[in-house]
Amino acid sequence: MPKDPDPFDMWDPYISILRPYDGPPISTRAWPKRVTAAQWDAFNDIMLERERQQEKWNEPPGVWPCDATTKLAVLAEEFGEVARGVLQRDAANVREELIQVAAVAMKWLEAFNADEITNRKKDGTG
Fold it and tell me: Domain segments of the chain: what residues?
């Protein structure tokens, strides 16, 4: 009987984007044991948006050279577009804006992780 394909194989390009360094991972948490199709689809949409952002702004993963106030403003602007879509009862727009909110939040988190890796290398713990 053929073995089911490993669902994580298809994510190798994304995982390499998320972990573009040779050091130890920041988190020792494992992938969830059960992932629904809707969760995979959502993650895929977010990663495609992150890729689009990287191409648009020409910044590698983990790089967001601005202060926290600017990052907050970008995230708030995207969230405001979600609110507008809800008030206008535009489900398709709400979905697209939620993807953008998640992608901006992920970009900020990537920057946190990259900073932590850099700090570990500087102090000799990474």
Answer: 65-126
- The full length of the chain comes to 126
Backbone φ and ψ for 111, nearest 5 degrees, come out as -65, -40
* Sign of the alpha-carbon dihedral angle for 88, 92, 95, 99: negative
What confidence tens digit (pLDDT) does each residue in 60-96 have? 766 777 888 988 999 999 999 999 999 999 999 999 9
Position 21 confidence tier, pLDDT thresholds 50, 70, 90: very low
Instruction: Concatenate the DSSP letters of all residues of the chain into one string.
Output: -PPPPPTTGGGHHHHHHH--SSS--S--PPPPS---HHHHHHHHHHHHHHHHHHHHHT--TT---S-HHHHHHHHHHHHHHHHHHHHTT-HHHHHHHHHHHHHHHHHHHHHHHHHHHHHHHHHT--
More confident position, 1 or 90 = 90
